């Protein structure tokens, strides 16, 4: 680890426990800081909080008392989900107490080069693609996917070395809390409007995203989506790093692009686009960004292609689960709104049997109609919106409409009505909270059902 002495004898408030806060507290304690942890929830029965107390770390829970700030704090490590409008955070800013997020902490101690990925859509898939590519046929060290993807960056940064790579997904929330954060390669997949409930204005959101390149120099690289004019203008006007564009729509003088169904980098054919197994034009964009990073890291084309040949997607995000009797099952449980389902449907040319439904947010789903008309041969609905989704399918003139109650029932019904060559796609267009704690639980239920269908088919064949 670098900068071990930087934290010694500092007084640090870790605001918000969660996974990243817990690991940040342990790290700071290990480095000799005096650590205080504060969480709005009552942590009296929380195992992690008890473990921190056992180590002598003070834990204050059940609210955010402002008198914590009366202590001589050197800085605050804030959970990115806590908004800057929080009274304690506002008071800390007024007192000019430095506020950082866990990714800044990870950067300060990391010996490993950092490849940082941000964007409105595609961050997680691109991060996992890059990790997969950089670990293909690797002889020294390894690449670790960390950050907003789920594994705390500071946890891995404690043990990784200069021969490793930290492939770090970073959100706008996290980037608002960085000061020295300096990735050797930054990736911006795209920028749309998002999280305006947190950021209040689009300008604040965009500025947070662009912080990813703020400390880069001309020895660093920024990989960006050339098909977005706004993003191109932002990058070219603000970044000092070497510009590495990617484009799905046009041939470029340099960077990654598609020509004659080939992914090309700096004029060199890298691999056929058909080697990208997860469907969707947006995933071709993610692949272009990942290929650009792999080439910047010196990877061989054969290794890049080999890595893509076994990359089946990120769990719950257009994940190819299995092929059973010629039917391909895709888990896109992360599609919690109609726009995400539209993007999913756009990725298929084969007939789709759509499994959709979930929490009723009292919102119209009629924007699905054009894509249902074009791509969907049958639909099986479930959850609170099952009847609403069925009505949308009727408006789209879908002939086969089946109403089920649960994901397992809907998945089995979809298989029973399917034919060889069909795609069975779980892309709910609704949140999961009517029947599940989160979209991961819903996706896992789908995966388990597909496994059971496969076992049943194989059992039938063997008798």
UniProtKB/TrEMBL annotation:
Domain (Mur ligase C-terminal): give its ranges. 316-430
Annotated ranges, domain Mur ligase central: 117-294
GO MF annotations for this entry? ATP binding; tetrahydrofolylpolyglutamate synthase activity; UDP-N-acetylmuramoylalanine-D-glutamate ligase activity
Q: Where in the cell is it found?
A: Cytoplasm
Q: State the reactions this protein catalyses.
A: UDP-N-acetyl-alpha-D-muramoyl-L-alanine + D-glutamate + ATP = UDP-N-acetyl-alpha-D-muramoyl-L-alanyl-D-glutamate + ADP + phosphate + H(+)
Pathway connected to this protein: Cell wall biogenesis; peptidoglycan biosynthesis
**Cited NCBIfam families:** murD
Protein name, as recorded:
UDP-N-acetylmuramoylalanine--D-glutamate ligase
Q: Which gene encodes it?
A: murD
């Amino acid at each position: 680890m670098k900068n071990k002495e930087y934290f010694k004898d500092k007084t640090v408030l870790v605001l918000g426990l969660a996974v990243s806060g817990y690991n940040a507290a342990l790290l700071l304690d290990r480095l000799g800081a005096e650590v205080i942890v504060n969480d709005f929830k009552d942590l009296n029965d929380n195992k992690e909080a008890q473990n921190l107390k056992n180590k002598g770390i003070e834990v204050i829970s059940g609210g955010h008392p402002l008198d914590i700030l009366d202590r001589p704090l050197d800085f605050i490590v804030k959970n990115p989900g806590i908004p800057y409008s929080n009274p304690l955070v506002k008071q800390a800013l007024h007192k000019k107490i430095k506020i950082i997020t866990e990714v800044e902490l990870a950067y300060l101690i990391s010996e490993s080069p950092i490849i940082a990925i941000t964007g409105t859509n595609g961050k997680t898939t691109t991060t996992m693609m890059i990790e997969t590519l950089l670990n293909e046929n690797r002889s020294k060290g390894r690449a670790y996917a960390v950050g907003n993807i789920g594994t705390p960056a500071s946890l891995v940064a404690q043990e990784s070395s200069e021969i490793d790579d930290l492939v770090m997904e970073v959100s706008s929330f996290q980037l608002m809390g960085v000061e020295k954060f300096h990735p050797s390669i930054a990736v911006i997949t795209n920028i749309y409007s998002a999280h305006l409930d947190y950021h209040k204005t689009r300008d604040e959101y965009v500025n947070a995203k662009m912080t990813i390149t703020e400390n880069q120099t001309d020895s660093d690289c920024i990989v960006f989506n050339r098909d977005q004019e706004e993003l191109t203008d932002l990058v070219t006007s603000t970044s000092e790093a070497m510009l590495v564009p990617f484009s799905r729509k046009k041939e470029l003088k340099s960077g990654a692009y598609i020509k004659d169904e080939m992914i090309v980098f700096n004029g060199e054919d890298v691999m056929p686009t058909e080697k990208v197994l997860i469907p969707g034009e947006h995933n071709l964009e993610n692949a272009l960004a990942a290929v650009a990073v792999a080439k910047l890291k010196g990877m061989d084309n054969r290794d890049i292609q080999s890595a893509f040949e076994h990359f089946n997607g990120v769990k719950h995000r257009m994940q190819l689960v299995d092929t059973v009797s010629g039917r391909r099952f895709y888990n896109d449980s992360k599609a919690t709104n109609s726009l995400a389902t539209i993007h999913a449907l756009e990725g298929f040319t084969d007939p789709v049997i759509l499994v959709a439904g979930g929490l009723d947010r009292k919102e119209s789903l009629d924007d699905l109609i054009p894509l249902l008309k074009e791509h969907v041969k049958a639909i099986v609905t479930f959850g609170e919106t099952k009847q609403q989704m069925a009505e949308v399918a009727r408006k789209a003139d879908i002939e086969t409409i089946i109403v089920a109650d649960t994901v397992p029932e809907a998945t089995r019904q979809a298989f029973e009505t399917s034919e060889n060559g069909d795609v069975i796609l779980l892309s709910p267009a609704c949140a999961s909270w009517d029947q599940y704690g989160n979209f991961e639980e819903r996706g896992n239920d789908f995966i388990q059902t597909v496994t059971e269908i496969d076992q049943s088919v194989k059992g039938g064949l063997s008798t």
